[in-house]
Design brief:
45% helix; disordered N terminus; two-stranded parallel ribbon; alpha/beta; single chain
């Protein structure tokens, strides 16, 4: 973050968003209260916590997991295994399952991620700090307007007996995109 001459500690992007919001409000194109409702919805009712609950349930309920993996249409769930790691990208734009992952991260929409994810997925994963064994296959799924993907990461070892709520705390947005791994069970209490 940078400090601007008026004392703001907002990032350049945050300042641009505020400026755009002000202009659109002044011109009557948006209602600030409606915008607040939309933002509140993405912060509380939809978002990565929804996807984390889905993953946690799949980890602890084999029937649910099978149904989740078998019944993909608009949202297809792909499972990581000891032999296969899945990663999601949208090479054309930034199609993304907002309802289960919330707002897309800035890097997901960036041209470098969108092109490198397909050409050099192992390199992209390394940039995120994910180092996989050379023998592990990496499969990149390209989202479209019709089909979005959610990665079902492998359940971390040492989580037997964890409640679904505690399991959900291990799940990150990045591990549901495939650019990260679940948290270590020692990181949550």
């Amino acid at each position: 973050m940078s400090v601007h001459e008026h004392g703001s500690e907002l990032s350049e992007m945050q300042l641009r968003v505020r400026a755009l919001e002000t202009v659109l409000t002044e011109k009557g194109y948006i209602d600030p209260s409606a915008l607040d409702v939309i933002i509140e919805a993405y912060e509380t009712r939809v978002g990565p916590h929804i996807g984390a609950r889905v993953v946690a349930r799949a980890w602890s309920d084999p029937v649910f997991k099978r149904a989740l993996l078998d019944v993909g249409d608009h949202l297809v769930v792909v499972e990581n295994t000891p032999q296969l790691h899945n990663m999601v990208v949208c090479t054309l734009c930034s199609c993304y399952p907002w309802d289960v992952l919330g707002l897309p991260p800035v890097w997901y929409k960036s041209a470098p991620y969108r092109s490198r994810a397909v050409k050099d997925p192992r390199g992209v994963l390394a940039d995120f700090g994910v180092r996989l064994p050379q023998e592990m296959q990496i499969r990149v799924w390209d989202s479209t307007a019709e089909t979005r993907f959610l990665v079902l990461p492998m359940r971390p070892s040492g989580t037997d007996g964890f409640s679904q709520e505690r399991l959900a705390q291990l799940v990150t947005r990045n591990c549901m995109i495939g650019t990260g791994l679940p948290k270590n069970p020692d990181e949550v209490h």
